[in-house]
Design goal:
The chain is an alpha/beta fold. The chain folds into 4 domains: 209 residues, no CATH class; 89 residues, no CATH class; 171 residues, Rossmann fold, CATH 3.40.50; 75 residues, no CATH class. The protein contains 25 helices and 14 strands. The strands form 4 sheets. The protein has a 6-stranded mixed β-sheet, sandwiched between helices. It has a 4-stranded antiparallel β-sheet with strand order 2-1-4-5, covered by helices on one side. A two-stranded antiparallel ribbon has the order 7-10. β11, α23 and β12 form a beta-alpha-beta unit. The radius of gyration is 37 Å and the shape is elongated. The termini are far apart. Bound molecules: adenosine-5'-triphosphate (ATP). Adenosine-5'-triphosphate binds next to α16.
Length: 646
């Protein structure tokens, strides 16, 4: 980490300044203490000799004041430098963390162990690397400050009557506080809490149903609210005083454990120095004013000293270890190995040929999702020839999407092989394989970026080509509605940075050129956020389609295989018809695979229909062949057709 930060000029300068200022800052309290001791000595001398060296007093007092000013200033500089250094280190590491995230494949990324490793490294609030730097620097500075203060304190106390005893007694009180504090939040203790009370669990569930907007539609339409409220009330009554959140219960528990012996002794111990002082004053009445001043100095210094000493102790045994552990995790994520291993060979050998499509073959492929016992696909074999249009047909959950995921190597089969142009896809470089395929997933996503970028990212080699973006939007059927949006192609589907505002004057409908989302106002109370662009499911799907067109239809594209997982699920019949027409026209000779659970437009046009059921291929062939077979396909087809026949 030190090497890494050191190699980044933008970080090094500010981190070095931060260390220097923090070190200087550690000297000041000891200097201040020294001058306070000097003032005390001057007073003592004055008491004995009845004369004051005004010059000396002035110099010492001025120095003491300078110490205070310097202390304040160095604190300010330290804070300013730490914010800049923190921001720079954070920015430096964020690229590194994002890269570690981005390069992971699906099975690796979905692994819960990897997930926790990744989230530990992210540490958005307290950037891990900065945290480690700061913890080490402040702990070292505190230790230095402590040693200096301790030496000065010893020098000052040497001449004081009862100084050491008073210091010790003053130290006892913060020590007890600290021990009490550690007893219930010990940094290295491990604990867990659960709730086993059914009534409480139900109350929390009902509260969520009523408060969260996700459930509102069904709650209202289902006429549920009265029942929910009576359930809540009944559970609340049964629970009585025992109904409390985890934090309330924890507070109660802590309160109960505060009746310890030390809690009774805490206050008398605090009074001890005064008692000792009073007894001594009776013994030596002449020295009362001096002793009073020295008691004050001892008490304030020792209390501050005790706080710091105990804090350093805590840091040494807790935070530094934790910070280093977190840094190790930060570096470990660089070395996470992907489960889907890259292949060695380039693909395709002949770029021209890809435009004519590629063949796809499954040889006895079986697959289980990671952590699952059931097969999502079992013993699947088929071959789709170059340039064919294939339809994979099957019920929900039969394994259609899984086939497409395996072709793009989002996962690798548990058994069997998949071949593209007669080459095992595991031997092909992943980047080449993905360059040669274009896939529209059923659960396609929309990135929280502008519409323009959402479409443009379809072709990451040429994502800003406005003409291509617009043409793709036309082909995907998105151009018209996008053009009508106030911000057109620059519209953010889901703004990642939200506008935040207080309550607005009545009648405000737009803010920063965007419609105010009063739903959000209600949700967030006082300050509110403005985020979502409301598009329908069909419109969202058209955008996803446009992205696919962007990828597969550009002049330089190297796509030979187009995969569509239920591309028309949210489209109306006219849009669906238009889409298939466009796809057929535009695909040229590229191989195309559609998955669907509906019979429709494509069944008659497909060169090959593969029917899957319960993770197996049931039958395959052209529409005519399958009708002739008179098995599952023909039966369902006839059943559906009947509905439309007179
Ligand atoms: N990410 C996943 N993790 C675990 N199991 C999964 C995952 N995705 C799918 N499955 C399971 O694998 C099986 C096949 O799912 P798949 O999505 O391939 O079906 P499908 O035929 O595409 O269904 P649909 O028509 O509903 O899209 C199902 O039993 C499903 O529950």
């Amino acid at each position: 980490m030190i090497k890494d930060i050191g190699s980044s000029k933008e970080c090094t300068f500010y981190v070095a300044l931060y260390i220097i200022v923090t070190t200087i800052n550690s000297f000041i309290p000891a200097a201040a203490l020294w001058y306070s001791g000097q003032i005390l000595k001057i007073v003592e001398n004055a008491m004995e000799s009845r004369t004051v060296d005004r010059n000396l007093l002035f110099r010492v007092a001025a120095s003491r004041t300078v110490c205070s000013i310097l202390q304040r200033l160095s604190e300010h500089w330290r804070y300013s430098l730490s914010t800049i250094a923190q921001r720079r280190i954070k920015a430096h590491y964020q690229v590194h963390i994002l890269e570690s995230y981005a390069r992971l494949d699906l099975p690796t990324f979905e692994d819960p162990v990897i997930q926790s490793q990744l989230s530990a490294a992210w540490g958005e609030r307290a950037p891990v690397a900065w945290n480690a730097v700061q913890t080490v620097v402040t702990t070292a500075a505190m230790a230095l400050r402590l040693v200096l203060q301790l030496s000065v304190l010893a020098a000052v106390l040497k001449g004081q009557r009862d100084g050491l005893i008073l210091a010790f007694l003053t130290f006892l009180s913060p020590l007890m506080d600290w021990m009490k504090f550690r007893s219930y939040i010990h940094p290295s203790s491990v604990w867990a809490a659960t709730c086993r009370n059914d009534d409480y669990i139900r109350m929390e569930g009902v509260k969520d149903v009523v408060l969260q907007s996700d459930h509102r539609k069904e709650m209202v339409a289902g006429n549920m609210w009265e029942h929910l409220i009576s359930e809540y009330d009944a559970a609340r009554k049964r629970l009585g005083d025992a109904a409390g959140s985890f934090h309330e219960m924890l507070a109660l528990h802590k309160e109960r454990t505060t009746l310890s012996l030390s809690s009774f002794l805490a206050e008398p111990i605090q009074e001890m120095p005064q008692i000792v002082f009073a007894l001594r004053a009776v013994q030596y009445p002449a020295s009362i004013p001096v002793s009073l001043a020295s008691l004050n100095l001892i008490q304030s210094t020792v209390q501050e000293f005790a706080f710091q000493a105990l804090h350093v102790f805590d840091k040494m045994f807790g935070s530094i270890g934790e910070a280093f552990h977190a840094v190790r995790k930060l570096y470990d994520i660089q070395n996470i190995t992907n489960r889907v291993i890259d292949g060695p060979n380039s693909f395709p050998e002949d770029q021209q040929k890809v435009a004519l499509g590629v063949s796809v073959e499954f040889r006895n492929v079986s697959f289980k999702y990671p952590g699952k016992d059931d097969y999502a696909l079992q013993g699947v074999s088929f071959k789709i020839e170059r340039g064919q249009l294939c339809l994979i047909l099957g019920e929900n959950g039969s394994g259609k999407s899984t086939m497409l995921k395996l072709i793009t190597r989002l996962y690798d089969p548990s058994e069997g092989n998949i071949l593209i142009d007669d080459r095992d896809i595991r031997t092909i470089k992943l980047a080449d394989l993905r360059r040669a395929t274009s896939v529209l997933f059923q659960d396609y996503t929309h990135f929280p970026l502008s519409i323009k970028e959402n479409i443009g990212l379809g072709d990451p080699t040429n994502p800003r080509d406005q003409d291509m973006i617009e043409q793709s939007a036309k082909l995907g059927g998105a151009y018209d509605f996008v053009s009508r949006l106030p911000e057109g192609f620059d519209t953010y589907l889901d703004r990642p940075v939200q506008d935040v505002y207080s309550s607005l004057p009545e009648g405000t409908t737009t803010l920063f050129g965007r419609k105010v989302d009063y739903g959000a106002v209600r949700k967030f109370g006082g300050t509110s956020k403005n985020s979502k662009t409301q598009l329908s499911g069909g419109q969202m799907q058209r955008l996803a389609l446009s992205r696919t067109f962007m990828r597969s239809l550009g002049p330089d594209n190297q796509v030979g295989l187009l995969l569509f997982d239920e591309p028309s699920a949210s489209l109306d019949p006219v849009a669906e018809h238009d889409l298939f027409e466009r796809l057929r026209e535009l695909r040229g000779n590229k191989t195309m695979i559609f998955s669907s659970h509906r019979f429709g437009n494509l069944t008659r046009n497909a060169d090959i229909i593969i029917c899957v059921k319960d993770s197996h291929v049931q039958e395959m062939g052209t529409h005519e062949q399958l009708m002739k077979n008179n098995e599952g396909y023909a039966k369902i087809y006839s059943l559906q057709a009947k509905a439309f026949l007179p």
